[in-house]
């Protein structure tokens, strides 16, 4: 933002964290320039209050800066009976209580009349403030708002309302607010368009990578190979010389040890992997808990180089390969350990990509409801059918996919970083504009 000029004259705001402000700007506590409206939740037991046409906003809706609709809706009866009330269009909505405050401070403008729940406040600007300027002002001072939190139980955060409503705001003259808004509108629209373009590019890269992987593990890379019907819907046709069989014919599938803290003796403690430690292609080994694994159980409940660890619950089928640790590590019952039955027949690197494709194609979903299975029992897992090329071809396919994926990952990382920088620039611009660090009165 080096091309922006500062104001010619500044004064001390009298607020340590705010510092200098333009000489002709006012400074005022939030509670003196806005009025507040609270919300609530009508009884869930009264169906006549729900699924109407009136938007009812909660924290999950404040993902956009301008809110025209919400996930949940109320009926007219909910409002006329007094179970809910409407805030007018133009209200500035903020989250004052919720787990989301541990990360961000959402601010949105209500574009239509709507009801809000008890975790939100609706702010109405006085004549000194343009409502849209107020929204940008609160976004620009988000870090200061988050400095005024308290614990609200069960990991939830809440604003300390007296401290927050006493937070000092910068108040430019009305015509200057309009100039600032005009410039922010132009710049944020331009930045948002760039972010959207780059986000779409990331989607295309991910689609390209998945298409590469899917083709590799179901068709191979020989365009002239004879094909056959695999007999498995999600596989379709596969090369004629590939085997198609149940997982149990090629891999041993062992579920980890059930953790029983009542029987913990602490005589044979071993760090162990949990479901959350296994992410796609990566395994966490930092700050692992420990469990008793007796010497007689070591072979059954520990991992060795090349084992494929697969999530039994949660994000069913998520997998990663265990690599290189010589120390003894166990694994909990929430994970499957897969090992090729014959080392000269299969390689976990290839089957990792097969699992990724199976997951993307909904193999681990219920055929009726399409709801993800909460758990994948070992016996059920063993019955799934997969395609298996000869081991040499498995290695060639896995190596090719890994090289191509690594190249795409470089682009993905670079693009994601570019998006993060654009978002940082957007936030910094808003903060600088609404606190008077830059003079936008004649900016083009």
TrEMBL record:
Domain spans labelled Type I restriction modification DNA specificity: 23-186, 255-399
Keyword Glycoprotein assigned: no
Pfam families, sorted: Methylase_S
Gene Ontology terms describing biological process: DNA restriction-modification system
Keyword Repeat in record: no
CDD domains, per the entry: RMtype1_S_Eco933I-TRD2-CR2_like, RMtype1_S_EcoR124I-TRD2-CR2_like
Key words of the record: DNA-binding, Endonuclease, Hydrolase, Nuclease, Restriction system
Record-level Gene Ontology MF annotations: DNA binding; endonuclease activity
InterPro entries in alphabetical order: Restrct_endonuc_typeI_TRD, Restrct_endonuc_typeI_TRD_sf, Type-I_RE_S_subunit
Domain of life: Bacteria
Family annotation (SUPFAM superfamilies): DNA methylase specificity domain
Similarity field: Belongs to the type-I restriction system S methylase family.
Protein name: Restriction endonuclease subunit S
